[in-house]
């Protein structure tokens, strides 16, 4: 029997697990103890999150009942934190390059001390650069100290000079600052466009408190599924804010990637914004040179994992900026069955659509990455 050739794909959504002792090795202990950290129960099913003096308990997800990887419920992908093992995993899966988000460091959006955040972000980025330098296939996202616009601008400049090409944004700014549609953020949009850094947004990254941990807004019947789908709304809100405020019009060179929130929402959001813009014209501020949909279709990208409808977002709905993502090494991702997932998604797709979603959209955002191997 002939073994099918690999469908090579870039990933617009992957993660790296930071070393557990990262902050304790590189920060004064008094500050390190306030940075986000996870302490797992011996059975691996629950964890306690510690963030700047606050602690929360949460149940850890387990692999789906239909999982095809052969891994146990608690196993992690071998290359979750090791760059050399990671490359072996990627080669086996047919994944070429990756846009890589952090893991525990995402919880820095819940920090409220500007000095602590500024120091911690610098540590995270210095370590992430070391990881990125292990392979040109790794595109790590730079963390930003969003409690201060001035600190944010400075860190974007610093990390761009270091070699970062994407900056990680949560779906909402810190609660102490205005939403992203306000002019206070204009210096940030200026420097992103100036440097060419991609604004890389990951869903489920709102600041959390004891009432809302990791997007757990719902409890009771259906809660798990309700929480999972509701996390996608944050990516849609920040996209609408960037468009309707005129930020993308003022910065035509700025590109936004919304990761892990699916992609079929793009055409729907485009229609909804256009309708609101037309039907409520007298109340619309600011007036835009083009319809909102035109900014979305040209400057906004989105990654998805398993969604069959996402292929139709490009092939039938006209949104070319659809990018596949593996969510490696998370258990809801495709590790262990990437090839079967890709074959199922693109079984009936035009080759040009497959190429654009698996390779082209990512390469457009990150042209410095070496090209995918020729099959």
TrEMBL record:
Keywords annotated in UniProt: Lyase
Domain Amidohydrolase-related: 75-361
UniProt-listed Gene3D superfamilies: Metal-dependent hydrolases
The keyword Lyase is assigned to this record: yes
SUPFAM superfamilies linked: Metallo-dependent hydrolases (SSF51556)
One Pfam family recorded for the sequence: Amidohydro_2
Region described as Disordered: spans on this chain: 58-79
PANTHER family linked to this entry: 2-AMINO-3-CARBOXYLMUCONATE-6-SEMIALDEHYDE DECARBOXYLASE, ISO-OROTATE DECARBOXYLASE (EUROFUNG)
Stated name of the protein: Amidohydrolase family protein
Originating organism: Pseudonocardia ailaonensis
């Amino acid at each position: 029997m002939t073994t099918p050739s690999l469908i090579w794909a870039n990933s617009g959504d992957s993660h790296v697990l930071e070393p557990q002792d990262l902050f304790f090795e590189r920060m004064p202990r008094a500050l390190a103890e306030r940075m986000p950290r996870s302490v797992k129960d011996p059975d691996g099913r629950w964890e306690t999150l510690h963030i700047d003096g606050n602690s929360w308990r949460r149940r850890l997800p387990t692999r789906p009942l239909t999982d095809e990887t052969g891994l146990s419920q608690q196993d992690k992908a071998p290359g979750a934190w090791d760059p050399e093992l990671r490359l072996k995993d990627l080669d086996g899966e047919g994944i070429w390059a990756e846009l890589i988000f952090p893991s525990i460091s995402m919880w820095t959006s819940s920090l409220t001390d500007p000095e602590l955040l500024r120091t911690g972000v610098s540590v995270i980025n210095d370590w992430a650069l070391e990881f990125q330098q292990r392979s040109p296939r790794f595109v790590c996202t730079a963390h930003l100290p969003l409690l201060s616009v001035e600190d944010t601008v400075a860190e974007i400049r610093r990390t761009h000079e270091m070699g970062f090409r994407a900056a990680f944004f949560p779906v909402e700014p810190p609660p102490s600052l205005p939403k992203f549609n306000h002019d206070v953020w204009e210096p940030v949009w200026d420097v992103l466009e100036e440097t060419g850094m991609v604004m890389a947004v990951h869903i489920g990254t709102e600041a959390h408190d004891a009432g809302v941990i990791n997007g757990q807004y719902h409890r009771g019947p259906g809660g798990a599924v309700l929480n999972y789908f509701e996390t996608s709304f944050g990516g849609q809100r920040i996209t609408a804010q960037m468009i309707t405020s005129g930020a993308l019009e003022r910065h035509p060179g700025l590109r936004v990637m919304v990761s892990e929130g699916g992609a079929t929402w793009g055409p729907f959001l485009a229609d909804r914004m256009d309708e609101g813009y037309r039907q409520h014209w007298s109340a619309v501020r600011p007036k835009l040179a083009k319809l909102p949909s035109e900014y979305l279709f040209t400057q906004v990208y989105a990654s998805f994992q398993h969604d069959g409808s996402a292929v139709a977002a490009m092939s039938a709905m006209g949104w070319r900026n659809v990018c596949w993502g593996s969510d490696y090494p998370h258990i809801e991702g495709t590790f262990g069955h990437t090839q079967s997932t890709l074959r199922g998604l693109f079984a009936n797709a035009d080759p040009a659509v497959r190429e654009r979603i698996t390779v082209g959209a990512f390469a457009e955002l990150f042209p410095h990455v070496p090209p995918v191997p020729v099959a």
